[in-house]
Amino acid sequence: MLIEIDVERCIGCGRCVEDCVGANLAVEDGVAQVKGRCILCGHCVAVCPTEAVSIPGYDMADVEPCAPAGTTIDARALLVAIKSRRSVRDYRPRAVEQDALRLVLEAGRYTATAKNAQGCRFVVVQDELDELKRLVWSGIEDLLALPAADKPRWVKLYKPFLRDARAGRQDFLFRNAPAVAFVAADRADDAGLAAQNMELAAASLGLGVLFNGYLCRAAEELPAVKAFLQAEDRLLQICMLLGHPAVSYRRTAPRLPGDFVVK
Would strands 179-185 and 208-211 be described as parallel, antiparallel, or unpaired? Predict the structure, then answer.
């Protein structure tokens, strides 16, 4: 799958050539020409002034006009939004709307990935959350019941979590979140970048997120849970609880002084 140039639209300006990561383009006889393989990053599509470039394997109807860098988001407002985010541990008994979920997922899908691999799988569990909880807690219970020599080291930390959940006290893994989102990927950095964009999108929709490493570890280690999530051979790198916050924060929280090196 390669990019295509509409020779009727191409004006031979060379902008796509100058911005091509893989030196895959050249202007010949007044029009851009595709020279070889590329990583399909889409820079040529984005930079072309006449919409002459397309990628046949992608949904070109998904391409939108955009303003120049630095004009779409107020930097100060963005920083305040970042400072205002909180790890949410208490949620309203209200499902996350499908339109909101879709926007959060799109924020993940459009995140940069190494070599433009776009290899993240995004899994959201809401309608079948009770089944996910059953699989996680029963899997943990089964492992904790094993003889000490056969018990995985990681699961021992979950013993008080299981005790409290079975007793109807705090559910440390799921809280009362109506939805759980996972990002599965070969690379942790790809998943982490996607998750951060997803959280910012969620915050813009009035949703709250809690990054949950304990639940992510259990889901990755329990085969029945991994199969339920359909992550296949990709690692579950990130887990996020997601829902409408039950707590409202009035101001940003303080942080330590920045450990910056600027030369």
Answer: unpaired
